[in-house]
User: Fold these one by one.
Assistant:
Number 1:
Amino acid sequence: MIAILKREFKSYLHNVSGFIFIAFLLLFVGFFTAAQNLFGGSANFAYALYNVVIIFLLIVPILTMRAIAEEKHTRTDQLLYSLPIRMSSVVIGKYLAMICVFLIPMAVICLYPFLLSAFGIMHYASAYSAILGLFLLGSALIAICTFISSLTESQIIAAVISFGVLLAFYLMNGFAALIPSSPLASFFCMVILSALLSLLVYALTKNFNVAVVVATVCVVPLCAVYMLKASLFEGLFPALLSYLAVFDRFYTFVYGIFDMTAVIYYLSVIVFFLFLTVQVMEKKRWS
Amino acid sequence: MIEVTHLTKIYGDHTAVDDLSFTIERGKIYGLLGPNGAGKSTTMNIVTGCLAATSGTVRVNGHDIYTDPLAAKRCIGYLPEIPPLYTDMTPYEFLTFVAEAKGVPYEEATRQIKEVIELTRLEEMQNRLIKNLSKGYRQRVGIAQAMLGNPDIIILDEPTVGLDPKQIIEIRDLIRMLGESKTVILSSHILAEISAVCDHVLIISHGKLVANDTIANLEGSVSEHNHLHISIRGELDAVTAVLANVEGIISCEQVPNNNGTLDLKLTVSKERDLRDDIFFAMAEHKIPVLSMELEELTLEDIFLSLTDGEGTVSDPDTPADGEEDATGEEEEEEKEEDAQ
């Protein structure tokens, strides 16, 4: 794992992608800090970070696109499969290398509150909890995009899909607000979701029976619960969507709240997507 | 060392490897031979743990490749068909990475890297980026990588593809040298390579193991007949009449030429050298024999006969079945006439 981490980290610094990520993040944080805190005269550093978030949509895909897609493209993944290391170590090593790259601009950003304190009174606690929030958000997004990179052989496709998915997550709260919270609407959305899930299972396994079983296992309990107690579906789907709103958890940090549930939420997103990445890598062995 | 039992790999509806079983013993060089798409690379990928089999087991030094993959992989150094190299590193950096990933302690790794760089003659190139190296040097970096961690078994998938003749000879020498201390398995569809380097050949065709023997034994076992090319000054009828009395000739075919001589290609049994008999028979009838040449079946013929599964039909030198029958019949007719 350490070997993979070292190699990947060096490789990010040999390539442009690591520097683009670092440079753009610092550029925008600097720009918004200047706009909000220096020219705007605000003492709240978190507001600057609030504006920075949107730049993640562009730079996280640039950082993560080559993570696994390039290994597949150049067939170097065969080396990883033949080395005496677990696939989970490989994925964690790669992920930590990206986190190390991410830590470089974050370390620089950590100096900003100190610098700003020269111009007025800084609330260090809220500033640093917002920085931590930004770091957790970025780490979660990197995990999601690493997973997307493992799905394709092409870096460009990985980057485009990552951008699309991140954009969808960014707008998720808006989507959630559009969907009516009536039980019937939620019920229909859940059924459609089950159908999509079984289609996905069919696409992955090419086994019709398994897909039908998955669909039945999802839809039958849904119908049963809806008939017995429709009120349970009240606002269920919008609530479900808001779980996917990765960006929104960060805003609680911006408002000066150190939210432990958000920390746990981000950590579970990271673990979940790294787990999926390992599974995708293992699946290739079985194809 | 390696025990493969009932290995099967199915891709969708295509069976790439079909019930393969073999054992690899210590200290030999094995050649995995087969036409393109026979399942060589698939087999190697399964043995090295890069690919999972549909069914069957692989045990490396007693470690099962599925239940105990790390221990099994530590015993194997693998060079896949396309050398898996990070092109943004130098050979030295790359080898350091591989040694570290294989869990070799730092000082031991430094020593081993120096050793493999010397063995693969990479000294001059060790600090250039791999992307600037030629195919031959990349292949050597791939082999060097497989040798790190001092594995007992080294598996090389088509190690000489795309190399120039000088490089091929160098790689072959390297493989021979490796074979002195380790077990080496290499795959190839080039026979010359296998016969030049290997002690033992495994021939795979359509995912099935069709031969598993030493080269000498294979040459002995598969070919039942030899071909004898003779050049005679005389008439076809007279000659065939004489030949009909020589025992052991299976068939006879005329090879047309413009030299005014009669050239025949005889298929003869392997048990006895018929050249003496033919000479004396011809001498008795005062037919001059200008030349006689015995052609023994080569590894090439064996390979073709095994991988086609239909005798040596696709060998351009051998007559097709129909012609063989025809000459056989002619001979029989002639024999009958003789008897009358």
Number 2:
Amino acid sequence: MTVWSVIGAGVAGLAVASELVARGAKVQVFDPGGPPGPHGCSWWAGGMLAPWCEFENAEEPVLRLGQNAIDWWAGRTRVHRRGTLVVANSRDLPDLRRFARRTEGLVDVNGPKITELEPDLNSFSKGLLFEAEAHLDPRQALRDLHRQLCDQGVVFHQKLAPPRLENAIDCRGLHAREVLHDLRGVKGEMLVIRCPDVTLTRPVRLLHPRMPLYIVPRGDGVYMLGATMIESEDSSRITARSMLELLSAAYALNPAFGEAEVLEIGVDLRPAFPDNLPRIRRLGHTIYANGLYRHGYLLAPALAQGVADLALDNKHSELVDEDRA
Amino acid sequence: MKTFYGTELPNPLMLGTAQYPSPAILERAFRDSGAGVATVSLRRESGAGQAFWQMIRDLGALILPNTAGCHTVKEAVTTAHMAREVFDTKWVKLELIGHTDSLQPDVFQLVETARILTEDGFQVFPYTTDDLIVGERLLGAGCEVLMPWGAPIGSGRGLNNTYALRAMRAEFPEVPLVIDAGVGLPSHAAQAMELGYDAVLLNTAVARAGDPAAMARAMMLAIQAGQLAHQADPIEARDMAEPSTPVIGKAFLS
């Protein structure tokens, strides 16, 4: 029986391994970094399963392919189906109207309704509720996938994959750019804060002219605050400006966030192709699955299904853009 | 046709490269519009956006680096130097923000920085207000191009003060003038060209449109229409109707 070698144990690699195993394939995983952890960029993700919100600024496949993600993940980790709330400061209300116009799956909510949904939110007069959206804890999701795969007999090798592997699936993200020349890194910065005084139960987005700022509850008063998008490949540290903007957003949602503890500062690079959509490429004996950009958890299931279709059934999903087997 | 520091623009659309949904869409906006100049910001991508910058170079447009987001002379000078190294050009769009909410330029620092950069061999494109005296000072500092605002950056409000912009055109007939900032619709861009401006610089109106490539093309068509109209010597507006066919001899009194 063919053994498939998945290289890279980030969200892409683990999702691919999980999908292959679910379809009865035999899989091993290589990652010199070991089990999922801060060395992978998916560790720093928000974990929003928000295809409708993302569609505001993304191509159509994100909306369509992303919708399957919620059920895919719900079968593997805990998914919170509480929707997404989008709000804007009064001076940015034209942006809220534009946001609503540019996507779907939303209902308008007024001030009292917003307070009913999230009593701890500062007073906002208008917002949008995307009821069908969901969120998960990305680190828990990675741990759950890892544990399930171990239970299913998948061997994890904590080392580099040997060269010239047959039946390899390369999910190394930006490390694969020596082969995938059109891959680039897009810098993202995020914070993890703890603020037990504030209770939010669903992701809240605050519209901002330059980036989608959002806060995702992680439980126990812990929140993930993200995320900048900067066309830079310097992931060494967060800038003061980014930190100011992230914290100002939290402060605008509820001034009590001013008392939050800053637990973590995350900076990493998202692997992205020029249209910011993921790709599957088969070159020789290796299938490359990459370019999840800011949609790691949202599009990893579709990417994994596309890889499994190609690897096991030689079927070409729309994400396959090159096949030179 | 006026030249910009000796360079003739392929066409009068200067298009920004920030805020697009993806580099692929940015590339399409340039391809579909044929914009002749690409402006690019360096400050937020300090030193490490090589992949992105290479993509900008590959657009095939003339590159005008800018100092967007700078608030002081020192910042702007440093950013200009970086731009010269990264893009190997003397051109720099000098943007010196004085007010956080309106992003209005700080014209005092602007004049000072323009002098410093000009003496250093830069060819400065200053983002300024529609104030004539400031314009004069900028020319005195060595600028050979002026870029007055139409309205605050990203506001999409169009030409807020056509009286002042007309006065500026009349005051500096030989200087290349560019409307920079505030354009939201193709009609705004056409209006700028009808006033006799030499080019229009815009970014948000295209990048944040639902279909950036289509909007970029619409802007280019409007700019060309406005330019053609200006060259065609438009009629003066009048208070009363003027029939387009002669009425003498017709029984119009019956």
